Amino acid sequence: DGGITQSPKYLFRKEGQNVTLSCEQNLNHDAMYWYRQDPGQGLRLIYYSQIVNDFQKGDIAEGYSVSREKKESFPLTVTSAQKNPTAFYLCASSMVAGNYEQYFGPGTRLTVT
Amino acid sequence: GENVEQHPSTLSVQEGDSAVIKCTYSDSASNYFPWYKQELGKGPQLIIDIRSNVGEKKDQRIAVTLNKTAKHFSLHITETQPEDSAVYFCAASGSGEKYGNKLVFGAGTILRVKS
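Predict the joint structure of the above. Result:
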């Protein structure tokens, strides 16, 4: 899983609560990403950030929020507005400027009941 | 935007046989095509990638081919082993300012290698 850590590995929350997933990297990468993975589906992009203090919505940003205050950190908040939050969440990072390889963390499995 | 289709969704092979997974993409400007392997409960790991300026790349038992005209690329695994069993994802890079450094992923292929 390279130099990307996600914590915790398993997370349980009650419906209606916001929850923040942690992602930290020590690869000195400029770009960071959050993906959602559901059973039998590919990875869908939630948010991405190409530089500190800047981020863009991905394909399924509704009900999620992010911040990028430090280069090494890109936390994801799953808000109560997300209709179906139970999923496996993956964080990734890559260098920018022509280098597209993305390195993934081990993931966080979020269960909301 | 970019769309990536991956086939087959599941693939069972006998140990020692070859496995081939195919992907097609829609954006002719895409220029980077990685393949990832994901084991159960873990994050995907890059196993091989290819850029649009080459047609084929090999790394031991793994190879990837790219046909830019037809907009498809394939993963070839030879002499399969039980430890090759996993989910494999293809992806294609978007292009232009809108997509920046984004990857669009296929839906994945579950590969089972029977011993």
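The helical segments of chain B are 96-99.
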